[in-house]
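Re: that chain you flagged

S.,

Sorry for the slow reply, it's been a week of failed gels. I finally had a moment to sit down with the sequence you sent. For the record, here it is as I used it:
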Amino acid sequence: MCGSFISGATKERGTMSKELIEKIRAEVLPSATDLSLTVAGEPFMTPKIRDFVDLAKNGEVQLQLNTNATLIKDSELLKDVLRQSSVLKISLDGHGSVYEDIRRGSTWSDVLEKVKLVVRVRNSLPRSNQPRLAICMVLMRQNIHQLIEMVELSKAVGVDRFEATYITVMSDEMEHESPRLIPSEADAIVRAARDRADELKFRVCLPPLMNGETIPTKQTAQLSLALSEIKGLTRTRLNRLSFEIKNKISHKKWARIAKGEIPCSFLRSGVFISVGGDVAPCPMPGRPVAGNLLKQSFQDIWNGEVLTAMRMGFINGKPHHCCSHCSQSPGRYVPSDPETSKPKHNSLPTNQ
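Prediction finished late last night. Pasting the structure tokens below so you have them in one place:
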């Protein structure tokens, strides 16, 4: 289910050169707010993780990390990562024997204790240094029946939210795991998970139903969640909220001038940079490569032919093929569509 593993990127264990890191520091970070160490491997495995923490700190940006938690220890590194992060997401694709069958070589009880450790260490930090914590789950036929229990577990261990998404089929051997093959059952489970989250007054981000319909949070739960957000506000989160509001206003103004909206946050304000310097609009399957940071300036790539054409595709109502079937594209993600669950053209993240 992991594109980087299938492509061989995680096996090669590549890491960025000093030259590439310096170009990112000089050309990308001055206009950035977040630095995400995700996609092509486990961030706590990189020997340069301390360099990236310092890079974020010196560039006054916040880290966003996805981790499987297997390598987490009670250490100064963990504290430094949490202090410098806006959000840390932990991937748990089920619990008990289901988890161990999916995450071969991992032990559920050990990983659960490490998740609890992260929560304890986060809570011990000054409030202004406490990032949001989330548990994430990739939904497959073998684990979707645990969705409600995972919502309950996430609430119980003390993370801030739970996020789930359907598997994107990267290889023929995983085709049988697509929930689109059990549409009625999948829809019933997602509805039940939403109801349970509302009962618990717990924030979740669940995938849409198979027809693309999104199930909203009940109004009673919305009020409780809003009050909880207010109680949890810190100066750092207030500053971030202020930035997000200004950013949304700026995007609305831009959309009016451009006479079209771009619903993709990557195309508006983010890029994926591989360990070899390739710059792509995002890490999603089928995305093109827009240039290489070791050969071109970031400004030339950001305003270049590839990214401009992809943005104009949304404005003109003819988005790029990978955008039309992307699980991150609001209003366009229909899980029952075979081209969405199993894209025809996989451009998988690599170390090249």
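What I noticed first: Residues 235-258 form the longest helix (24 residues).

Talk soon,
D.
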